[in-house]
Automatic annotation (TrEMBL):
PH domain sequence ranges: 47-134
The name this protein goes by in its record: FARP2 protein
A Pfam family this chain is assigned to: PH
Segments of skewed composition (Basic and acidic residues): 7-18
InterPro entries cross-referenced by the UniProt entry: PH-like_dom_sf, PH_domain, RAC1-GEF
Species annotation: Panurus biarmicus
Disordered: annotated segments: 1-21
GO MF: guanyl-nucleotide exchange factor activity
Length: 134
């Protein structure tokens, strides 16, 4: 929820990045969002880790940014490339709903999904049907 457009472009030192992302532990996010995670959910999450390129839409533009994304431990981690050691930003997903964009969202692209938690909305686009379904 703390992630923003500026976070994607920030040039924090690697030490700053590490400490920033430690604050996004599952326990911290559960407390902040007033939710919980069952042991079953946690077990399933550990078995379902994904990585690959996604395009992320900027809020007030038509542009899309290509990022290497790692999904693990209920969180998306964003990297410029798959070779980066530290993420540019992270997005804890507990409490987020996943859906397809509606007409009012004004997105006319294939393979787009929407992540929303309260007023925080993110759009991501996969480069293929296979990636989108994953």
């Amino acid at each position: 929820e703390q992630e923003s457009e500026d976070d994607i472009h920030s040039s924090r030192s690697s030490l700053d990045r590490q400490s920033h992302h430690r604050a996004n532990t599952t326990m911290h996010v559960c407390w902040y969002r007033n939710t919980s995670v069952s042991m079953t959910d946690h077990s399933v999450a550990v078995e379902n880790q994904l990585s690959g390129y996604l395009l992320r839409k900027f809020k007030n533009s038509n542009g899309w940014q290509k990022l290497w994304v790692v999904f693990t431990n209920f969180c998306l981690f964003f990297y410029k490339t798959h070779q980066d050691d530290y993420p540019l930003a992270s997005l804890p997903l507990l409490g987020y709903a996943v859906s397809c964009p509606v007409e009012a969202d004004g997105i006319q692209k294939d393979y787009v999904f929407k992540l929303q938690f309260k007023s925080h909305v993110y759009f991501f686009r996969a480069e293929s049907k296979y990636t989108f379904e994953r």
